[in-house]
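Q: Got a minute? One more chain.
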Amino acid sequence: CLPARARVSSSALPTLYARCKAHQIMLPVSVLVARIALLPNLGKWLLFVAALRSMSALLGFVKPSSIQSNLYSLSNVSLLTGRIFGTWTSISCILSVLLAFDLGNEGLFYATFSTFALALVHFAGEVFVFRTMKFRNAMSPFFIATFTMYWMYTDRLA
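A: Always. Here it is, folded:
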């Protein structure tokens, strides 16, 4: 904002402070937007999936009844179940964001891949074994997990 040792009148300080504060806030946002724009398509997809997951996690904490109506429609969802769902989804969301910005990190890659595999197994079990979920409610998680795992696998082979 200001060069070192610059003299400023006291009447200009409020305006200068506001301008500097705006730059401090805008700089990290513009850097983040630039970093996202430079990501490969898989990284952008992982950020999109993380955004979806973060909304689901928030619903798990704030309104567990929506998880019952949208996913586990054949079962009761308690407040505890909603919080556990929110916590698990938050962890998988964080891993997706971290991997999006560091696709070369092999350990992070396999950890994130595992979250998608576990989600696929979990939802398959809820639909076909425990019968707490309708197949149509699980189609979105099935698609996202399968598509992402395939993309991650083929990207790793390339």
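A: Residues 1-6 have pLDDT under 50 and may be disordered.
Q: Perfect, thanks.
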